[in-house]
């Protein structure tokens, strides 16, 4: 495939007074760094610019203390201190050759304002967004008409600070049915009877006034645009016909405000941003096109589209078809900050494609959650650990032979990075006939097929590394390893679900006596086909994430009658953080899965299980119980090797590490990170201890020594 095929993606585009060097637009998204951690934020955003993104935005940035979302760490442009911190961020983005953008937001009813305890104002005393119930934030004060000029001026002052910090693009947020400007526009929220409510012109008045004031203030020093939610979708996840509709008022909004903007960043979103940032379970590539794709005809200004735009061919189609002028993405750039550079250089197969798991989204939903990524373990570590996603230094102990046992996510990542660090000889050995470990069954769960990219990306990279040999279908014992001749051994043998009820919720054994004639199985046994599954299945879930609901859906869709029981208040509560819970629950109900949250197992007869619900016991006919409980490490090999430490010297063995789930079962992202970190630090001066990382924090009485990588505090003063 010729690199010329993608040339259109690398055309410069004029945006008002600025010119983007290409069509890659990294959209605003939370990182957990805000402006409070400027070094981490600068390194994070700077890496995107280095990776070829022509436009790099930071994140939702509140214009004043009263609209702060704290304790969520997001951007702030309240004062000169925020300007100083922002300058460092902008400088790093500019150093990479990109335009720097900031998204100004007045969060209205979403403003927790935990720090200043000031009161936000809203168009109406509307309830909070779906992701943040009103109880968290309280209800905002209704904006009196006499307050409007003051609120608009807060935006103007923040925009001037943005210019002062060097930002090239200033977006006013008007999407996700969450910001003040969108609330004025949308009849669902705007029930005012004054000059700012009622008719279309009245509801659009606030947007016109604020855009005009911001433009007047910043002049040619920055381009000004609107991030506009063109469709707030159907109820219950959306606002229905009283919301914004792409085939309703949205075209009119664009035409009405077009003279006041330099660009349009078009998105969708109902009662929260989960419809915009849908996971791969429900959203295919370019899934927003039915809503945003026809909007360009209403504007003379450049248009940004988003919606899981992962493939370069789709990107070209989006541009060539006139759907949009810019390829907007957050997750694609988290998973691979160098996506544009790889397309430019014709290295398409080396793109670390986003799997749409939404783990990054879940971190944004957890207050103060620092960004992580299943595919990219270096994300967020640019400053803290000085990790570059594409650059690996040669290991000081590269002449040591390394044996990695286990080719799941942790082992694959570790072997790949060891290979890239130039080790003479790395062997990756697995008992299975294919690499992938637990992902081989996880990716057969409904909607998780795209997670296979975690394996495929690493498999391909390994195939290019001549210093790494992959050996499959070989189960190694401790004797085998001691005879292997490797100087360093890395155990990455994973974990498995225990077939009992041990969990943080419930440490009691399953209350089934000998009379229960059904079988009790684990998720792995279900997905491998090793277990006989009866007609009536009970899924007992204390794991709390996607596996329990995934198993229930898998079995129900094959005709089994499924009952799901969990002591948690929801089935798969972590799916709320990945913003998948509503659709997963809807799909399970469509399959007639009975769900008993906040419930326990009370006992069993030969073919029934008693479910203890808050409303009393319920008898469920059950042939098979699937226990989705605690995962336990498969670390016998590690323990045996350490028990035989006296034999290491004779075997030439110097160190045995363990990584991933064999150390502690956790998210796939944690397994990948664990393998990556060991490979990065395997030549550490003290290999038995993790290397210290830089803690960005305010440090009292700081001295120059504190700023050195080996400074006693390992800290940076702000
Ligand atoms: Fe994509 Fe998952 Fe990484 Fe987010 S965490 S960028 S969804 S791979």
Explain what you see.
This protein is α/β, with parallel strands linked by helices. It folds into four domains: about 5-365, Aldolase class I (TIM Barrel); about 400-495 and about 635-685, NAD(P)-binding Rossmann-like Domain (Rossmann fold, 3-Layer(aba) Sandwich); about 520-630, FAD/NAD(P)-binding domain; about 690-718, no CATH class. It is built from 23 helices and 30 strands. The strands form eight sheets. An eight-stranded parallel beta barrel has the order 3-4-6-9-10-11-12-13, surrounded by six helices. Helix 1 packs parallel to helix 2, helix 13 (about 410-420) runs parallel beside helix 15 (about 455-465) and helix 13 runs parallel beside helix 23 (about 670-680). The longest helix is centred in the N-terminal third of the chain and has 19 residues, at about 200-220. It starts with 12 loop residues before the first strand and ends with a strand. Residues about 125-130 have low confidence and may be disordered. Iron/sulfur cluster (SF4) binds near residues 331, 355, 359 and 373.
Structural class by sheet pairing and helices: alpha/beta
CATH C-level category of the largest domain: Alpha Beta
Task: Tell me the β content.
Answer: 15-25%
Low confidence ranges: 127-131
Number of domains: 4
Q: Would you give the CATH topology of the largest domain?
A: TIM Barrel
Number of strands: 30
Number of helices: 23
CATH architecture of the largest domain: Alpha-Beta Barrel
Strands of the widest sheet, in order across it, are: 3-4-6-9-10-11-12-13
Average predicted confidence as pLDDT: 93
Distance between the termini: 47 Å
């Amino acid at each position: 495939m010729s690199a010329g095929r993608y040339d259109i993606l690398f055309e410069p585009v004029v945006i008002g007074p600025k010119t983007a060097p290409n069509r890659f637009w990294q959209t605003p998204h939370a990182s957990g760094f805000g402006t409070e951690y400027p070094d981490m934020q600068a390194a994070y955003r700077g890496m995107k610019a280095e990776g070829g993104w022509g436009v790099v935005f930071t994140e939702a940035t509140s214009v004043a203390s009263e609209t702060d979302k704290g304790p969520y760490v997001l951007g702030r442009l309240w004062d000169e201190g925020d300007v100083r911190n922002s300058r460092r961020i902008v400088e790093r983005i500019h150093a990479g050759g990109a335009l720097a953008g900031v998204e100004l937001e007045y969060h209205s009813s979403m403003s927790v304002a935990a720090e200043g305890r000031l009161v936000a104002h809203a168009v109406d005393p509307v309830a909070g967004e779906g992701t943040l119930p009103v109880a968290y934030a309280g209800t905002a004060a209704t904006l009196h008409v006499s307050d409007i000029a003051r609120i608009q001026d807060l935006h103007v002052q923040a925009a001037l600070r943005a210019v002062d910090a060097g930002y090239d693009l200033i977006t006013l947020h008007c999407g996700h049915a969450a910001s003040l400007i969108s609330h004025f526009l949308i009849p669902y929220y705007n029930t005012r009877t004054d000059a700012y409510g009622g008719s279309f012109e009245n509801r659009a008045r606030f947007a016109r006034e604020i855009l005009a004031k911001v433009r007047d203030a910043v002049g040619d020093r920055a381009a000004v645009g609107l991030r506009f939610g063109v469709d707030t979708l159907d109820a219950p996840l959306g606002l229905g016909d009283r919301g914004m509709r792409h085939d309703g008022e949205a075209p009119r909004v664009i035409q009405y405000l077009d003279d006041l903007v330099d660009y349009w960043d078009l998105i969708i979103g109902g009662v929260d941003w989960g419809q915009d940032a849908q996971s791969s379970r429900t959203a295919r590539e370019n899934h927003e096109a039915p809503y945003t794709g026809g909007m360009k005809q209403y504007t003379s200004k450049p248009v940004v589209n988003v919606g899981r735009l992962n493939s370069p061919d789709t990107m070209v189609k989006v541009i060539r078809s006139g759907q949009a002028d810019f390829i907007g993405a957050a997750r694609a750039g988290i998973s691979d900050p160098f996506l544009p550079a790889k397309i430019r250089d014709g290295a398409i197969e080396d793109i670390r494609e986003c799997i749409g798991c939404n783990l990054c989204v879940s971190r944004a939903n957890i207050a103060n959650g620092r960004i992580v990524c299943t595919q990219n373990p270096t994300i967020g570590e640019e400053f803290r650990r000085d990790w570059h996603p594409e650059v690996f230094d040669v290991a000081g102990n590269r002449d040591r032979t390394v044996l990695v046992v286990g080719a799941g996510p942790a082992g694959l990542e570790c072997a790949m990075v060891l290979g890239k660090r130039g080790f003479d000889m790395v062997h990756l050995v697995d008992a299975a006939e294919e690499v992938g470990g637990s992902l081989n069954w996880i990716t057969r769960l409904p909607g998780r097929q795209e997670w296979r990219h975690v394996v495929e990306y690493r498999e391909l990279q390994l195939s290019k590394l001549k210093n790494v040999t992959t050996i499959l279908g070989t189960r190694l014992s401790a004797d085998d390893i001691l005879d292997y001749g490797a100087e360093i051994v890395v155990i990455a043998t994973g974990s498995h679900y225990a077939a009992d009820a041990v969990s943080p919720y419930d440490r009691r054994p399953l209350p089934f006596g000998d009379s229960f004639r059904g079988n009790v199985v684990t998720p792995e046994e279900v997905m491998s086909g090793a277990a006989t599954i009866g007609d009536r299945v009970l899924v007992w879930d204390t794991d709390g994430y996607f596996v329990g609901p995934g198993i229930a859906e898998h079995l129900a869709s094959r005709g089994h009658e499924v009952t799901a029981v969990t002591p948690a208040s929801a089935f798969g509560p972590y799916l709320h953080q990945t913003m998948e819970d509503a659709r997963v629950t809807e799909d399970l109900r469509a399959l007639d899965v009975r769900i008993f949250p906040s419930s326990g197992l009370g006992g069993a007869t030969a073919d029934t299980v008693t479910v203890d619900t808050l409303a009393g016991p319920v008898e469920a006919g059950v042939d098979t119980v699937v226990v989705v409980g605690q995962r336990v490490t498969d670390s016998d090999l590690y323990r045996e090797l350490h028990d035989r430490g006296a034999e290491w010297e004779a075997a030439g063995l110097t160190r045995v590490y363990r990584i991933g789930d064999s150390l502690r079962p956790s998210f796939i992202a944690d397994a990948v990170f664990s393998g990556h970190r060991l490979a990065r630090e395997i030549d550490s001066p003290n290999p038995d201890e993790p290397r210290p990382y830089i803690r960005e924090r305010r440090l009292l009485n700081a001295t120059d020594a504190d700023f050195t990588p080996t400074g006693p505090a390992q800290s940076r003063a702000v």
